[in-house]
Write a structure and sequence with these properties.
- By secondary structure, the protein is of the alpha+beta class.
- The chain contains 4 helices and 7 strands.
- It has a single domain, classed as Aminopeptidase (3-Layer(aba) Sandwich), CATH 3.40.630.30.
- It has a 7-stranded mixed sheet with strand order 1-2-3-4-5-7-6, with helices on both faces.
- It is globular.
Length: 169
């Protein structure tokens, strides 16, 4: 099992090495240009981490994945809802890294007052759908044709997990 811990600024290069693979070659993010070093630090400092943690997973001392919670919306009425992100280096996939990161994020969400966690997952990422479903998320809708990357028009599935026990019927 990987070691999951809070990220530090020293982890930013490893975090963005993993993330930039998806920026440049994948559809797990709709970003298309890697962030600059100052933008990475701004991303890291954007939200209070007692409520919106950024975690890394290590195997043998190397960062092989990361995850975070972030606000779903800046509007105050959405304060009870967060969105998760989980990214795993290609060489570490299938080794429980994503499961460990998502589980740790969900453990942190409840005491932080987050009642609902949302996930947006683009076409072409069935492992991410399975990861979230195994954690109890359910698909609540599909946003059709909302993204375009690498010349492909992409749908995005929207999944939710109700940590307060009040899932919609």
């Amino acid at each position: 099992m990987p070691l999951v811990r809070d990220a530090t600024p020293d982890d930013l290069a490893a975090i963005f090495a993993i993330y930039d693979e998806e920026v440049l070659r994948g559809t797990a993010t709709f970003e298309t240009v890697p962030r600059t070093v100052p933008e990475r630090r701004e991303w890291f400092d954007a939200h209070p981490r007692d409520r919106y943690p950024i975690l890394v997973a290590e195997i043998s001392g190397a960062v092989v994945g990361w995850g975070r919670l972030q606000p779903w919306s800046p509007r105050p009425a959405y304060a009870r809802t967060a969105e998760d992100s989980v990214y795993v280096a290609a060489a570490a996939r299938g080794r429980g890294v994503g499961r460990a990161l998502l589980g740790a994020l969900l453990e942190r969400a409840r005491p932080a007052g987050i009642a609902v966690v949302l996930a947006r997952i683009a076409d072409g990422n069935p492992a991410s759908i399975r990861l979230h479903e195994r954690a109890g998320f359910r698909t609540v809708g599909v946003m059709r044709r909302v993204g375009e990357k690498f010349g492909r028009i992409l749908d995005v599935a929207l999944l939710d997990l109700h940590l307060d026990g009040h899932a919609a019927p």
